Amino acid sequence: MKCPLFRAANITSDFDSSWSGDDCLKEECAWWDVEMGQCSINSLKSNLENIVLRLRDLVDKMPHAGQFTK
Q1: CA 64/CA 55 separation, integer angstroms
Q2: What's the rounded Cα separation, in Å, for the pair 10 and 28?
Q3: What are the residues whose beta carbons fall under 8 Å from the beta carbon of 46, sequence distance 6 or more?
Q4: Alpha helices in the chain (DSSP H)
Q5: Quick check: 3 pLDDT over 80?
């Protein structure tokens, strides 16, 4: 089995960087996200990217130091 989680946990000096994860087990895998129809790791990545984008928006909207002082 060439699950990305399995491979990530067993990285050694002879890691095969050409592997692309094409043999995903999909619904048979415990990490399969049924709602999103993809691996949970990909769902997690997407969710984290959305959080980062929203945090960047918040930082851009925050007042700068001393902006409201007299």
Answers
A1: 16
A2: 21
A3: 36
A4: 4-9, 40-61
A5: no
How long a stretch of residues is the chain?
70
Q: Tell me which residue has tokens 């990305």.
A: 4
Residue from 18, 17, 36, 15 nearest 26 by CA: 36
Statement: the pTM of the whole predicted model exceeds 0.70: no
| Identity at 51, one-letter amino acid code | I
Q: How far, CA to CA in Å, does 39 sit from each of 35, 52, 66?
A: 10, 20, 46
Q: Which two tokens stand for residue 40?
A: 């949970």
CA distance 64 to 39: 40
14-69 pLDDT, tens digit per residue, is 555 554 555 678 888 888 889 888 888 888 888 999 999 999 999 998 887 777 77
